[in-house]
Here is the input.
Amino acid sequence: MFVQATQCKRGNATYLTYLVRESFRTPQGPRSRTICNITALPPQTRELISQSLRGQSLVAPDTLQLAEAWSFGGLAVLHQAWDDFGLGRIFQFVPHPRTAGLLKAMTLGRILFPSAKLALVDHARGTLLAAACGLDQAAEDFDEDDLYAAMDQLNGRWVAIEKHLYEQSFPQGVSLVLYDLTSVYFEGDGPRGTSQYGHSRDHRSDRPQVLLAVATDAQGVPLHLEVLRGNRADTTTLQGLLTTLRRRFGIREVVFVFDGGMSSKVNLQALDELGLKYVTRLCASTLDELLAQLPTEPSPELWDRSQVMEIVREGKRYVIAGGCWRQQRDQQRRQARLAKAENELKRLAAVKRKKVNPQKLASQVGRMLQRLKAHKYFEYAVDPAGQLQWSRRPQVIQAEQLRDGLYLLGTNASAEQVPSTGVLSHYKNLLEVEDAFCHLKDYLRVRPVFHRRPDRVRNHVRICFLAYWLSAKLERQWRQKDQTIEVHNLLRQLQTIRLGRLEVQGKPFKTMVTQVPRDLNSALNKLGLLPLFSQPPAWAPQVCSK
Here is the structure.
């Protein structure tokens, strides 16, 4: 069967007439006959034949089916960022490519679907995680034993990885280091020696824990991570960090910013001896002492809390800062504590007791006030008849009202090195990083931690550190484009973009990308990410060839 084109003239114009002819053989020789004249067919039919003659493939709708569909939108962004930030070289010491791929898969998985290693196979099903990590998309099963074996490859290699990440992020070095601690508790006993009972930031004092010490730059990009025993005091962790940063990264001149829990005399003296500058928050009692030394005019309650106030005492610089919203917050907290405490006092006073024990009742009242953080606001006593009497301490409440919203910062840097406003901005950077630092447990979810070997606990946290580093770098890159979208939220929304494989009568036909959600188009365009979804990714050839 073939198409024959015949010229014909109508007036001064020449037209082509297409005839569909069939050739066949007879005893007298080959013959042909016209089956139909295309010009006599309906316009839709003529258009289909015309497209076919131009080389386009045409299929019947009822023979077309969607064989498979994989989520890949967030993976596409992370895969590009992984290459752009040079992370492909951090596992160059790993002996086998599949091991490096599994480490990358665990890192990306912490961002997109944080879970235990055992659940990674379930979350990865229906995604292109294996393909994005250079693994066999069809055969990779993310076996739990293989994942643990891959994690073990970080032993003895982490120092080189941290150095590479530091050189990649800070080719000119850093001038400001923010340092903070948090805790992570265990399900069960945890690894022997590392997991200990201590002060829990998760309010789970009933569980053993480890401490995570993380140093970052001013924008939250991490420099260093350390896993410490769960019962270490905050004040004993800073000097080890100083030694590590100086030896591993060659940091010599830098301003360290840390919270009040680490501002012991020993730590501050160690920083002075090393010639390092610091900015730290000091305790409320030190603030009270400084306020008591100030002249009565102008009185503290008239201060504009939007401004900072610098004080120099005995050669030491102090900066008093605050804010109206902090003042309102402190007032609301105090009022709530007073109200709860008085309700409990009334309840205890109204209880009818058969046998009165004044000492026991007073002890019960004291424990209650301590629990509600209201002990300093009340005077109370129990008479021999068992009657509970109490009253507020107006002098204590008034003194606290004077410093509502205020906090005290100390620094050993001169005014030329770090002005008063700079001291405040450094500490505010720490507050912002504390929020980002919570992602290490929260949005990246270091927990759940079920590991029992100390080295695997450290390597589990290191995988989370890599995910945190990648997210922080992406966030900084997006901020430079005036976009403040939370990285993990956008990436997980982008996972709704799928790559689908179409088949015709059971045979591969075409691979297509679903449309980008309308509400994300504008953001992706500003971030320059739309080209990632214009066609199937080149890093998934096994999908496109099926």
Remarks:
- The radius of gyration is 35 Å.
- Confidence is low (pLDDT under 50) at residues 542-546.
- The chain has 18 helices and 16 strands.
- The CA atoms of residues 521 and 530 lie 8 Å apart.
